[in-house]
């Protein structure tokens, strides 16, 4: 009996040592100990920040057909965030998005962030994290100079071109209802398609945010003075990526305080 007791005690001590050893080997730095959230760690491990950007909005995100490079205010903002996360402003992959595709690309994880003139709305905030606004604009109207149209009422019974899934249609419809006029809409996938439709006479007005319209202004067109429904642009991330959302928001607010964001706007001629 005594031998059996000694054997049992020895066995328990051995098991304790084995378990303690296993615990030591499996111990890994936790996110709490490193201070890096899992979503940001995944980006660091990948070595690249994946961002959805516009490629057809001059001054914000525009792909130069001559160089093939995408440039603009939102691309510069992307570089700041890439440097913040990865220590190198060049470590990002830019993927062209439209108003219709930017949400789904966030949903399926093809991009970490969307920085693409994405207006913050209460409805969208139910699906995505949004940073505080980094730019504020209003929905505007572009018409042909020779049309003689000077305000929204001049578009009564006319057709207005808007981007698919954009907030422009809702803003103009509400304004038209208040003005007591009827307007028609045609939706397009890209801004260049809307401008082409305006030039060909298929539509009588191109409507999107004013700063975007200025990128399409030419000698044959004019942007009306009216502005509708302020549009605040925010950086969007997947709802579960809370660490990334906080880092983005902190960075934008730091840029506001330091004046860096204003300097960046001035560089691209944005007001």
Description:
With about 270 residues, the protein is α/β, with parallel strands linked by helices. The chain has eleven helices and 14 strands. It has helices at about 1-25, 30-35, 40-45, 75-85, 100-105, 120-125, 170-180, 190-200, 210-215, 240-260, 260-265, and strands at about 50-55, 55, 60-65, 70, 90-95, 115, 130, 135-145, 160-165, 185-190, 205-210, 220-225, 230-235, 235-240. Strands 8, 9, 10, 11, 12 and 13 form a six-stranded mixed β-sheet that branches. A five-stranded mixed β-sheet has the order 5-1-6-14-7. Helix 7 links the parallel strand 9 (about 160-165) and strand 10. The protein starts with a helix and ends with a helix.
Quick recap:
This protein has eleven helices and 14 strands.
Structure keywords:
five-stranded mixed sheet; 271 residues; six-stranded mixed sheet; elongated; alpha/beta
Blueprint (SSEs and pairs):
Blueprint: H1 2-26, H2 31-34, H3 38-46, E1 49-53, E2 56-57, E3 61-63, E4 70-71, H4 73-86, E5 92-96, H5 102-107, E6 113-115, H6 122-125, E7 128-130, E8 135-144, E9 159-163, H7 168-179, E10 184-188, H8 191-200, E11 205-209, H9 210-214, E12 221-223, E13 228-233, E14 236-238, H10 242-258, H11 260-267
Parallel strand pairs: 1-5, 1-6, 9-10, 9-11
Antiparallel strand pairs: 2-3, 3-4, 6-14, 7-14, 8-11, 8-12, 8-13
Strand elements, count: 14
Put simply, the count of helices is: 11
The percent range for helix content is 40-55%
Intertermini distance = 90 Å
Whole-number mean pLDDT: 89
Question: Which structural class do you get from the secondary structure elements?
Answer: alpha/beta
- Whole-number radius of gyration? 26 Å
Shape: elongated
Write the element-wise H/E pattern from the N-terminal end onward. HHHEEEEHEHEHEEEHEHEHEEEHH
Strand residue content? 15-25%
User: Major sheet, described briefly?
Assistant: 6 strands, mixed
Low-confidence stretches: 14-30
